[in-house]
Prior knowledge:
705 residues; alpha/beta; six-stranded mixed beta sheet
Amino acid sequence: MKLSPMMEQYMAIKADYQDCILFFRLGDFYEMFYDDALLASKELELTLTGKNCGQEERAPMCGVPFHSAESYIAKLVEKGYKVAICEQVEDPAAAKGIVRREVIQIVTPGTVTAQSMLSEGENNYLAAVYFDEKEPRMSVAYCDISTGELKVTESGGEQAFEALVNELVKIKAREIIVTASFAAAYPREELALVTDAFINVMADDFFSPHACIEAIKSQFDCPNTAAVGLTDESCAVLSLGALLCYLLETQKRSLRHITGFEFYELGKHMALDKATLRNLELTESLHDKKVNGSLLYVLDKTHTAMGSRRMKQWLREPLNDAESINERLDAVEELYEQVLLRNNIKENLKGIYDFERLAGRIACGNANGKDLIALRNSLALLPEIKELLGYFSASALRKIDEQIDHLAEVRELIESSISEDAPFSIREGGLIKEGYSRELDALKDSIKDGKSWISGLEASERERTGIKNLKVGYNRVFGYYLEVTRSYFELIPDNYIRKQTLANAERFITPELKEMENLVLNAETKINQLEHEIFVSVRDRIETYISAIQKTSAAVAALDVLCAFAHVSEKLGYVRPKVDDSFSIQIIKGRHPVIEQTISGGQFIANDTYIDDQDSSLLLITGPNMAGKSTYMRQTALLVLMAQAGCFIPCESAHIGVVDRIFTRIGASDNLAQGQSTFYVEMSELAYILSSAAARSLIILDEIG
């Protein structure tokens, strides 16, 4: 039997998106059919129904309301599924035959843009990996599409694969794109286990040099890759180009907020592998994976979502350059000393909206009126922040001041155009201020008399008919009506035309009310349409400032972290460490930053540490169980890491020679599923550490052999 026209359309679209769950728009619902319906009904706990599609058996079917689809999509994406959103792309009233539908977006774990699906204090990275075993060489490109942040790096040599894995662990990518040949050599299950990411395997030709080069040229509007600091032969071109291709393929729109990328050298930051990130409990505790009990819990006193995300980056990527570290420490010291100025800055930061992500929503066409009002309110705080920064002399704070743009034009545009109480919807009116558009104001004036007549109708009809409880109401289905309860039915005039029967009342229309309704509703439709057009034009004008908005938001985020470091340092009695290029670590009366804040009914006993590259390059620590050996070792690593992130540390004094890597091997573990004993795992990890460590590496070994 032949399929119905609607199902023929569905099957044609589904054929192009076999690896996705297709959300097919039918009226006010997104429907799923066949295997998609069976899968979604199970994963989302939806009722499975059926639909006659022209075949003998009904097609399995389930659906979700379009206005609440985000929460359902979020659940599927969280489980690692890709969701293709298929919308009606023409007005059903104007369509001849079946309404045209197209997939307008593919949502994957790494391409989420909806605010409700994102964690406020965490970046959502999509990474693309290219690895050439023959050279060997590797490159990683990663992007947070919600903010427009895009970075790329490459590396070669015998440690290329380890460097690749460490980068993926450090950025905590949500989704990773790899070639089929890479997945064959390094199974996706193993990579997923190491990185905690969803692994997306693409055909090798997805990383073809021609396609990648063209994607880069198109995105950054440049004649060749040399114009953005790359060469066609660079393997960074392949990971960056493949990432851009994937984003364009899934978003199906221009990525105007991705205005550039940062190429960084791997040696710029301290290298931290997965074991170290986990064992030192930098951003989450080891046992319950929560922030409480981690270093982040102690230090994150930021006031903006942008600052919270930046602090996580700084803790996962401590600096390796003594000059850059001291530049941050200078800023923290000045903020530490200038308490009044710092507190005033912090008060202003409390009112700053997450306009880093708003820039992405503006570019994607998702920002609404409330977003723009929040942006205006945030921008209004920038002049005072810049004025306060003018009192500081630290170079890092001077740079932040220079990078913050007043964006007065954007603020004034929003102030003059967008209504203070703008609704969430951008299609139902109430968006645009009076006085911004003469045409809009004229339209609104044209229906004032009609609305006034309708609002006065209830009183005049009560007086004319004697029906004391007569009401004038409105709903979208029936329009305006006169409602009369049964107790007054005998007083209903002849010119009332019955429109709807209720349990204890009747609703009526009169020819005059109907005429006025047509006048008002037609005008309101035009008003809403014009307001939408004006709002989109305002949003498009703001979009031209996206680069300045992103630069300003990055500066505000850095300022927020520096203020948080200074606040915590003052409150908890931290001191500035001396950081240089020496090969010694000397900490006098150091304290564990997390444990001293979590113990109750006791006191943390301070202790000393001295390590150098001569007589004390190795410390052997012995003692009974529960004596604090692991705590002491982790404390040393944490204090070094805090210092190189730019924060003061809990001690009496400290001299830190820059460390390029921290390795940890803590606690017993085994991998019985792969036939690996505890001893085997320990020896494998130790072999990796010894082969990867360099002169400036700090190694913490606990329970070896």
